[in-house]
Specification:
- The radius of gyration is 30 Å and the shape is elongated.
- The longest helix is centred in the N-terminal third of the chain and has 34 residues.
- Strand 13 and strand 14 form a beta hairpin.
- The chain is built from five helices and 15 strands.
- The chain has two domains: about 90 residues, no CATH class; about 210 residues, Sandwich (Immunoglobulin-like).
- By secondary structure, it is of the alpha+beta class.
- An eight-stranded mixed sheet has the order 5-4-8-2-1-10-14-13.
């Protein structure tokens, strides 16, 4: 049984609206009186104005002894709040421009880690990335990767990196610097990548929507897919998978870790870490088609890392 009758809600909202309008009217009249007095007595000093303003039943507020003080307190509060709004807006604008003018803007990163083998000794990372340059004469993309576990190795023969612009392959060459524990690849494009003033300064969500819908930026946004394979990288006692965005903002980052269905996971921990601040996230856990998949997605990863740690039973 409802606590209040059905007609109570609309009437309560109507009364609240009336009270709000009355309050606005009262505050308007409270601030209008000093403004009218200043217009009529422009030659008076500030000290004289404050004396008259705070005078009980004075010429500004002849019907109230305290309205002058209410006006003064309200004016100070508005000034302080306005200062913080202006300063905060300016800082947000500067931060936004700094983030917009980094060498690359990354709209989307999809990371998929697959594990298999009797001891889960084999793993493959597929990194799908959508980005665009913000500076002219971008001829190549530098990619670095390093094994994190003590026994982990990178398998050289299974490296594959390609980039496409409007479904056209633009990868011209790859310069590989490789060791068992680390690699660096310079992917050379067959053209200078185009820049776009609108892509650089529009919000990333709008740019991504326009790109996905095919309306704009098809000749600006690059889709890049990289495959790397590892040996004994994620089958130790405390495996960790980390995505870091040190110098540019990644508008969206999605991570999937896929285990064979029979593998028992004792613990899966996901953290978003910036400086010393840690935010715990809760990955989605789905088992389908013989695989158990942990998935997590974050927005606006900037100068921070997304870490997934787990242990086996």
């Amino acid at each position: 049984m409802d606590r209040f009758p059905s007609w109570f809600g609309p009437i309560a909202r109507a009364l609240a609206l009336v009270a709000f309008l009355v309050t606005i009217g009262e505050w308007t009249s409270l601030f209008a009186a000093p403004a009218e007095y200043l217009l009529e007595h422009r030659a008076e000093s500030l000290t004289k104005f404050l004396h008259v303003l705070l005078m009980p039943y004075g010429p500004i507020y002849p019907e109230s002894p305290v309205n002058g003080w209410l006006f003064l307190i309200g004016a100070v509060l508005i000034a302080v709040i306005g200062y913080f709004i202006v300063v905060g807006s300016m800082r947000s604008t500067v931060d936004y421009l700094n983030q917009s003018e980094v060498p690359f803007t990354v709209l989307n990163i999809d990371m998929k880690l697959e594990l298999w083998g009797n001891d889960l000794e084999h793993s493959r990372v597929t990194r799908t990335q959508e980005f665009f340059p913000n500076r002219p004469r971008t001829d190549a993309y530098a990619f670095k990767h390093q094994a994190t576990s003590e026994r982990g190795e990178i398998v050289r023969g299974n490296l594959d990196i390609t980039s496409r612009l409007n479904n056209t392959l633009i990868t011209k060459d790859r310069h590989l610097y490789f060791s068992k524990r680390s690699l660096e690849i310079i992917e050379v494009f067959d053209r200078h990548l185009k820049t776009s003033f609108f892509a650089t300064y529009l919000p990333n969500g709008i740019v991504h929507s326009l790109y996905k819908s095919g309306v704009m930026f098809k000749d600006v946004v690059v889709r890049r897919i990289a495959h790397t394979c590892h040996l004994n990288e994620y089958n130790g006692e405390d495996p960790i998978y980390r995505v870091t965005s040190p110098n540019h903002m990644a508008a969206k980052v999605a991570v999937q870790i896929m285990f064979p269905e029979h593998v028992e996971i004792a613990r899966m921990t996901c953290m978003r870490i910036k400086d010393l601040r840690v935010e715990y996230l809760h990955p989605e856990d789905i088992t389908t088609e013989g695989k158990r998949t942990f998935s997590v997605e974050v927005r606006n990863l900037y100068r921070e890392s997304l870490e997934l740690r787990w242990s086996y039973k």
